[in-house]
TrEMBL record:
Protein name: O-antigen/teichoic acid export membrane protein
The keyword Transmembrane helix belongs to this UniProt entry's keyword annotation: yes
Keywords: Membrane, Transmembrane, Transmembrane helix
UniProt key word Transmembrane helix: yes
Chain ranges passing through the membrane: 12-32, 38-64, 84-103, 109-126, 138-163, 169-186, 206-225, 245-271, 292-315, 327-349, 356-376, 382-401
Native source species: Marinobacter alkaliphilus
Length: 414
C-alpha cells in the first residue's frame, strides 16, 4: 500500500499523467482542428514555454547558490528567498511585455504565445524554490494548462461553438486556469510567497545570483535555443500544414521520452545533493545512470516509431502525410541527447561545462543555418528534422565522452 501511495505521489507518475494529457490534446487537436488553427495554437504553446529562456541565469543561480556552499558570493539565505521571487517576477514580466509589444508590431505569429507567457510568469517564478524543496510536480502546471487550453478549443470547435475564434478562447482559458492556480497558491502560502521576514536581498545581490548561475544558464539556454530553433523560426515561413506536422512530431517525441526526461529532471537535484555532500563521484554511479537512461531511451524510441506510423496511416488526416519520417528523425536526435543529459549535470556542478557550452553553441549555429537553407530552398519538415537529429546525435556522443573524461580526473570515494 505504501509503495502504491509513493508511486501516486511521485513526480515521475505526475509527469507521465501530464504528458499523456498533453499528448492526447495534441492528437485530438490535430484530428479535429483545421491546419491553420492547430498551427496557431501549438506555436503559442511553444512560445509560452520557450520564453522561460529569459530568466538569464536566475534559476541556475538559485540552485548554484543553494548547493555550492556558504563560500559562494551568490549564496541565497532562506530569509532572502521571497525577495528573490519578487525580483524574478518583475524581470520575467518586464521582458514578456517587451516581447508582446514586438510581436504586436512585427511578429504576429508569436503574439498569442507571448500573452500566454505573461499569465504563466508567476508559476515559472515560484517553481525553483518549490523544486529545491523537492516539490517537483509544480513544474508540470504550465504544460498542463496549455494542454487543457488546446483540448478545450478542439472540443469547442468540434461542437460547432465559437467557430473561427479558437485563439480568443485559448487566451481566456489559459488566463482563467493560471488565475485559479495562483489564487490557490496564495490562499495556502499567503504573503510568504512574496514578502519575507527580515528580507535584505538587494538589487546588487540579485544580480550576483544571476552572475553565479550564468555559466550553467548559458549552456542550458544554448540548448533551448538550439533544440527550439526549428520551432522558433518555422512558423515565420512554413505553411500551416508543415508547421502542424513538425510541432506534432516534436510533441510525440517528447511524449515518448517522458520517463527519460523525468529521470534527468530529478538527476539535476540528486547530483547537486551529492556534490554538496563533498563526496567524490564514483564512475560506477555515472555508468549506472547512463545504462538506465540508454535502456529507457531504446524502449521509448521503439514505441515512438511504431506509434508514428500508426498515427499517420490510420488516425490523422492526409494533411499529416510524412509525419512518421519526421518523428523517426527527431526521435533519434532527442534520444541520444537525453541519454547524455542523464550524466552531464555532474559536469556543471564541478564547473567543467565550458566544452559542452561551446558544443551547444555550435549546434545552435548549425541549426540556424539549417533553417536558413530550408527557407531559401523551400525544404520541408523532413529536412529540418534530419538536420536537427544529426546535430543532436553528434553533440550527445561528445557530451558523454566529456563527462567521463571529467570524472576520470576526480578522486574515487573509497
Amino acid at each position: 500500500m505504501m509503495t502504491i501511495t509513493r508511486v501516486l505521489r511521485s513526480y515521475s507518475f505526475h509527469r507521465a499523467i501530464v504528458a499523456g494529457l498533453s499528448f492526447g490534446a495534441s492528437l485530438i487537436g490535430a484530428k479535429l482542428l483545421s491546419s491553420d488553427q492547430f498551427s496557431v495554437l501549438v506555436t503559442a504553446a511553444f512560445v509560452a514555454k520557450f520564453l522561460q529562456i529569459t530568466n538569464f541565469g536566475a534559476v541556475s543561480g538559485y540552485f548554484v547558490s543553494r548547493y555550492s556552499g556558504t563560500e559562494s558570493s551568490g549564496t541565497l539565505s532562506a530569509a532572502e528567498e521571497p525577495r528573490f521571487i519578487l525580483y524574478f517576477m518583475v524581470q520575467l514580466t518586464a521582458i514578456g511585455a517587451v516581447v508582446l509589444g514586438v510581436a504586436t508590431l512585427w511578429l504576429p505569429a508569436y503574439f498569442l504565445g507571448a500573452a500566454a507567457f505573461l499569465f504563466l510568469v508567476p508559476l515559472f517564478v515560484v517553481e525553483p524554490s518549490l523544486r529545491y524543496r523537492r516539490l517537483f510536480s509544480f513544474s508540470l502546471l504550465p504544460e498542463l494548462i496549455l494542454a487543457m487550453g488546446l483540448l478545450a478549443v478542439s472540443l469547442t470547435e468540434a461542437a460547432g461553438l465559437m467557430q473561427d475564434r479558437g485563439a480568443d478562447l485559448y487566451f481566456w482559458i489559459v488566463a482563467f486556469l493560471c488565475g485559479v492556480v495562483i489564487a490557490l497558491a496564495l490562499a495556502k502560502c499567503g504573503s510568504r510567497m512574496l514578502v519575507g521576514k527580515k528580507s535584505s536581498l538587494s538589487h546588487k545581490k540579485y544580480a550576483k545570483i544571476i552572475v553565479t548561475g550564468w555559466p550553467v544558464y548559458f549552456g542550458t539556454a544554448l540548448f533551448v535555443l538550439a533544440s527550439s530553433a526549428d520551432r522558433l523560426l518555422f512558423p515565420l515561413y512554413g505553411t500551416d500544414e508543415q508547421i502542424s506536422i513538425y510541432f506534432l512530431a516534436y510533441q510525440l517525441c517528447m511524449g515518448a521520452m517522458i520517463f527519460l526526461t523525468a529521470i534527468n529532471f530529478v538527476n539535476t537535484v540528486n547530483l547537486g545533493e551529492a556534490r554538496k555532500s563533498a563526496e567524490a563521484f564514483k564512475s560506477q554511479l555515472v555508468r549506472k545512470k547512463l545504462r538506465l537512461a540508454l535502456l529507457v531511451a531504446v524502449a521509448s524510441y521503439s514505441v515512438l516509431g511504431i506509434g508514428g506510423l500508426i498515427l499517420e496511416f490510420y488516425f490523422l488526416p492526409d494533411s499529416f502525410s510524412g509525419l512518421s519520417k519526421v518523428v523517426l528523425m527527431l526521435g533519434l536526435g532527442l534520444s541520444v541527447f537525453f541519454v547524455s543529459s542523464a550524466v552531464t549535470p555532474i559536469v556543471a556542478y564541478f564547473q567543467r561545462q565550458i566544452p559542452l557550452t561551446a558544443g551547444m553553441a555550435i549546434v545552435a549555429v548549425v541549426l540556424f543555418i539549417n533553417n536558413g537553407l530550408a527557407y531559401w530552398q523551400g525544404f520541408g519538415p523532413v529536412w529540418l528534422a534530419t538536420g536537427t537529429a544529426l546535430a543532436l546525435v553528434l553533440y550527445g556522443f561528445f557530451a558523454i565522452w566529456h563527462t567521463f573524461r571529467v570524472i576520470g580526473r576526480l578522486p574515487e570515494t573509497t
